Amino acid sequence: MTFGNRVAKLRDLKGLSQKDLAVLVDTGKDMISRYERGTIMPSIEVAGKIARELGTTLDFLVYGMQEQTTAGNEEFRLQEITKLPEGDQKHIWAVIDAFITRAKLQEILK
Questions:
Q1: Which residues have CB under 8 Å from 58's CB, separation 6+?
Q2: How far, CA to CA in Å, does 67 sit from each of 15, 37, 71, 84?
């Protein structure tokens, strides 16, 4: 599988059109199409933006290595949370707060 194939597959999995991805990485739809077809390769900066927006790593896009998502990357996850509607964000923070409180209580009760 090539860089372009991986970009196309992950883009589809995220439900993004080529135009959507182009807007997110500040380029044109035609450029995304060319990257996916393999007729050109993006600069490292653009490839990094594509990886970030698709929730993956450059290693995965370029070499097919490592995890397909940045699930362990807290900074990335926090950025993604801030893109959600305010109500969803409040729910997420409430769940996180509940887990933190539970952990603190368990520590006290030991």
A1: 44, 47, 48, 51
A2: 19, 23, 8, 23
Q: How far is CA 89 from CA 4, 31, 54, 56, 81, in A?
A: 33, 33, 20, 22, 6
Tens digit of pLDDT at every position of the chain (110 positions): 899 999 999 999 889 999 999 999 999 999 999 999 999 999 999 999 999 999 888 988 998 876 544 455 676 677 778 888 999 999 999 999 999 999 999 999 98
Query: DSSP of 6-33, one letter per residue?
Result: HHHHHHHHTT--HHHHHHHTTS-HHHHH
Long-range contacts of 9-13 (CB under 8 A, 24+ apart): 10/54, 10/55, 10/56, 10/68, 11/36, 11/54
